[in-house]
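Running this now, will post back.
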Amino acid sequence: MERPAWAPRSIDISVPSVSRIYDYYLGGSHNFEVDREAARKAMEFMPGLPKIMQANRAFMRRAVRFAAEQGISQFLDVGSGIPTFGNVHEVAQAARADAHVVYVDHDPVAVAHSQAVLAENPRTDVVAADLRKPQEILASAEVQQLIDLKRPVALLLVAILHFVEDEDDPYGAVAELRDALAPGSLLVLTHASYEGIPLPPERAGGAVDVYKDIRNPLIMRSRDEIARFFEGYDMVEPGLVPMPHWRPDTAPEDDDPWAFSGFAGVGRTA
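Update: finished.
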């Protein structure tokens, strides 16, 4: 198997990675055959997976613009994945020249590629860390340098929490990050769910099994379970809704039916 120049020596390119699979769904080029194979297998059960990822990205961009309009100039994107066109720093810095962005991911390819993309950008950096260890994120040199936790921050957890199993206490991790944020901070979140998928759950379950097989279980949670992540936040209108319904730029009925899979929301700390 040919190792591309951009792939860090330390990574095993025979094992699929969720961030590289996501990159493939979005039409990116930072993925290996093993990732494409897993993606195609999942799409046999849920052909709309790329549409769901595109809806995630579109929501993320609207939420970042919203945060900038609310006067927020600091963005902490945890589980940021591989930077593709229209990433957080591009949207945030187009809206506010003074925006600072820190990306966090535990995939070495995502981190290495982010470092390459951000090399010339002094207000943006990337941390190799894991959502399950919030203190490592908060104490990192990059966060300390670029993010002032005494001022409001937009914390992005987009398409990441459904990869954290209950036994790893995702609610505890989200609460720990919340408690570190200044009043007026925002939580921007999306999460996979069987609700809204235009297929019977047992069919969609085939795609979930593919993720289980690559040792990256996809945890489908109900709307109520997802709402629990917003404890301690006031929901921003329109609340926790399918992604196309969150402050849309275009008529949601024009969206692909797959875009309505799962939920998105933004909360504000009091």
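The longest strand covers residues 263-269. More later if anyone needs it.
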